[in-house]
Design goal:
3 domains; alpha/beta; 9 strands; coiled coil; GTP-binding; P-loop_NTPase; Mitofusin_fam; 26 helices; 692 residues; Rossmann fold; nucleotide-binding
């Protein structure tokens, strides 16, 4: 590895760590790799370059540059930095004469000849999230050993919230897309399609469990009736994995009644907190299963859509991909072209380019911006030959747990915030105890009286705040008067677009593209619902924010001790889920059942009006507004009670210590020394938390 440094730097090449791996973006990597003795003096004066190194906590000097160059090459080898994007960046720098022709050829040839080795990355454990989580869990254990009852519940909740967070990926594709074989390869164990777990049309959720099990969940009587089956009340049951085939094999009548299967399996990839949802094929004939799939997809962080490389970019695939991108999964959509072992390298490249171009073409034809597909990640995969599996796994680990993961960062930040708050509470208590031990009786009594005054103040504030919160609930007035009218106006526009497509297909005597119609309908309604829900959230949040400001003014510094729910996130999580499968089927049925375009238009108006009426959004949102406001009120009251209890305990402790008698002065000095040691420990804990 150091040979490349010697070729770039000559006698100026320095000894650096050959195994160092850097974390830079591909653009930053290209800039750093372009630095040579010829342009070094000129480039180090650039503020932009200084900022890049400062962000990486490095001084800008020859050693840091060469260390970073080696680190970037190792990152490219381990698929942590995209080699093609780096090469593109170097090409641009060469065009702008930042790097000379010889230097460009030397670096680009070296990168092109690198043997990529994704196994360097190993596992999720190498990512910042798990390292920080491990450290914070150690701190959690240390804080638990202080045995302060008043914070034990908060400690437990903080630990549970951080460690039980799930990262979900939904796996989709038409039948024979290679879902089971790809997932088996990804998990490094034949789970799906094995003799004891036959392939089924049921949705399967794979989650980690030390003791392996299978849970069979059944459709409700109403759901069974809607599928044309005899309505039966069946209780979900946990069964041994080797008995699962009795419920899922198509030959058994009960398999029709199975809604989903949850598999608890002891696997490394699941142990890292990843849940995998193996969905039924996109071409599933059962509408309710498609609805179930759509619901799980909306809850997933990523969607992995698999297509057989020999049959990629079908109409069903394209409609699904466009709809997914339009609904905000551009950064969370991964496309895998499977069975590439059956193709040569040229064919693979051709299929990959064809798929990318087809997606952009489909977006454009549906009236959407082609750039929606820019963040989609593509992999070429063969489960049989293990091609692309390690790269896919590493990409998932990096995306879920890496430094740029918003979800991982939020989990760690919330954990840190709560542990710092708990540490401060413990620290304050310890300092109060020391004051009680080291002061005269009157000072200790003064401190206890001060705490009693705080308790009285909290009681007074509680009554005042309770009154304010009750007023908040009374004045809550989600305006839904014009909601249905707005939605009907939108549905009229969508109907016109559908009719326009039907007329076009009829005039041109071509087959109607039903998949495209589905995208038109869903994207049209989704756009309106996004605006609809945003306005709703702003309206409710405005009232709650107003109450929060009043609360903050009344509580003063005590406001920092409150641990309140994130109302905006609560609303996002509980917003009504919209499914379009039945609507799309009704629309297609209406179009095919009548050749008269005016009749079709009238029927579609009725279908869309019924769809909006059945959604019952205004009432659902009114209920949600009340529910989330009550949740907020309940949390405030609970937090105020918690603060009051803590102050009471603190007062009792100080009174007890102030009245304590010691057999000799050494016992008292030892107790004070122990408290001093714990106070110092609290400061060390704060420092450790801040470093995570």
């Amino acid at each position: 590895m150091v040979e490349i440094l010697e070729q770039i730097w000559g006698i100026k090449a320095l000894y650096v760590d050959e195994n160092h791996i850097s974390q830079f973006s591909s653009d930053e990597a290209a800039i750093i790799l372009s630095i040579t003795p010829r342009n070094y003096d000129r480039l180090i004066k650039l503020q932009s370059l200084k900022d890049i190194f400062s962000k990486a906590n490095l001084n800008l000097n020859e050693y840091s540059v060469q260390l970073s160059q080696i680190g970037i090459i190792n990152a490219i080898k381990s698929i942590k930095i995209d080699n093609q994007k780096v090469l593109n960046g170097l090409n641009e720098l060469a065009k702008n004469e930042i790097i000379d022709f010889n230097g460009y050829n030397l670096i680009s040839d070296f990168i092109n000849n690198l043997e990529l080795n994704p196994t360097i990355q190993n596992s999720a454990e190498t990512q910042p999230f798990h390292k920080n989580l491990h450290t914070l869990n150690e701190i959690h254990q240390i804080l638990s050993e202080f045995k302060l009852n008043e914070v034990s519940k908060r400690l437990s909740n903080a630990y549970e919230s951080a460690n039980n967070s799930k990262f979900k990926i939904a796996v989709t594709g038409v039948i024979n897309a290679g879902k089971s074989s790809t997932l088996n390869a990804l998990m490094n164990k034949k789970i799906l399609g094995a003799s004891n777990i036959p392939e089924t049309a049921n949705l399967s959720i794979l989650t980690y469990s030390q003791d392996e099990y299978a849970k069979v969940c059944f459709w409700s009587p109403n759901e069974l009736e809607s599928m044309g089956l005899e309505p039966k009340k069946l209780e979900d049951k946990i069964v041994p994995i080797d008995e699962l085939k009795s419920y899922t094999t198509a030959a058994n009548e009960i398999s029709k009644m199975v809604k989903e299967v949850i598999l608890g399996i002891k696997l490394d990839i699941l142990k890292d907190g990843i849940d995998i949802v193996d969905t039924p094929g996109l071409d599933d004939a059962v509408v309710l299963r498609e609805i179930l799939t759509a619901n799980y997809m909306s809850q997933s962080d990523f969607t992995l859509h698999l297509m057989n490389a020999s049959q990629s970019a079908t109409k069903k695939d394209m409609a699904f991909i466009v709809n997914t991108l339009k609904n905000g999964k551009s950064g969370g959509l991964i496309i895998g072209l499977t069975h590439v072992d059956k193709l040569n390298q040229n064919d693979i490249k051709e299929v990959l380019n064809y798929t990318k171009n087809s997606i952009k073409t489909e977006l454009a034809e549906c009236g959407f911006d082609e750039s929606l597909a820019d963040d989609t990640k593509f992999f070429t995969i063969s489960a049989i030959k293990n091609i692309g599996i390690d790269e896919l796994k590493n990409y998932l680990y990096e995306s879920f747990f890496g430094p740029n993961s918003k979800k991982a960062t939020l989990i760690i930040d919330n954990y840190k915030k709560e542990l710092i708050h708990i540490t401060k509470l413990i620290d304050d208590d310890l300092k109060a105890q020391k004051t009680a031990l080291t002061s005269d009786a009157s000072t200790a009594k003064e401190l206890a009286n001060s705490l009693q005054n705080e308790i009285d103040e909290i009681n007074s504030l509680t009554n005042s705040i309770n009154s304010e919160l009750e007023n908040l609930l009374k004045r809550l007035n989600y305006d839904n008067e014009n909601s249905n009218a707005t939605l009907k106006a939108i549905s009229a526009k969508i109907k016109d677009r559908v009719i326009s497509d039907v007329k076009y297909a009829s005039n041109k005597k071509i087959k109607l593209d039903t998949a495209r119609l589905g995208v038109i309908i869903e994207s049209g309604f989704n756009d309106s619902f996004i605006d609809f829900f945003r306005d709703f959230k702003q309206q409710i949040s405005k009232d709650i924010d107003s109450a929060s400001k009043i609360l903050e003014l009344k509580l003063g510094t005590k406001n920092a001790n409150l641990n309140l729910p994130d109302i905006r996130s609560y609303i996002d999580e509980h917003l009504p889920k919209i499914n379009y499968e039945i609507l799309n089927q009704d629309v297609i049925k209406a179009i095919k059942s009548d050749k008269n375009i005016e009749n079709v238009g009238a029927n579609l108006t009725i279908i869309f009006d019924n769809f909006i009426a059945d959604l019952n959004l205004p009432n659902k949102l009114s209920t949600l507004a009340t529910t989330c406001t009550k949740e907020y009120i309940s949390s405030i009251k609970s937090e105020l009670d918690s603060i009051k209890e803590h102050l009471k305990t603190k007062e009792e402790q100080i009174n007890l210590l102030a009245k304590s008698t010691f057999d000799n002065i050494k016992d008292k000095e030892q107790l004070i020394a122990d408290i001093d040691s714990k106070i110092a420990q609290c400061q060390e804990i704060k420092n450790r938390i801040e470093l995570c």
